[in-house]
Predict the structure.
Amino acid sequence: NSSELNYQLSYFPTKKRINNTTYLIYQTKNYINPNTSWVKESDKSFRLLRYNQVIFNILELHRRRLQAELQQVSQAFEAAEKFRTIYQNSTYEIRQFQDGTEMGTDASAIKLWDQMIDEKLKDYPIEWIPEVSERNFGIGLNAGFGTGVLTGPFSDFFRPSFNFIFGFDLAYKN
């Protein structure tokens, strides 16, 4: 090998303020560790630079996909599952690139991959922020089912309950 990039794809919850409202969102990060990544001095070339840039761009593509996916989740376990899937996909695509370019020795394959990944990057904006519009009034509706099981001496006198829950909310801008 002429080089190795030690990269990391991660996400974390953060707060973002848009107008007068603070939103809890997931932020993604793509990072190459310069302390543990290396390039052989004798092999430095434009081809090797493009090779490593395409690896970074593949990771950036998957970071943007992850960012877009995380804007749609409502539970932390969903975020973890989306991250795991996208990280595995990014690792697989990087391996395909490495194999397809013979670890960076095939300049024409590197150029082809570079163009392909650049086109895919255009499909994902650098940072996707959820669309937000302020309203003076709000309305909400929720419904659910539930059950209750009693233990101890209460179970001798009462049967388990089955519940239907319905809620209706009205809001006014304060």
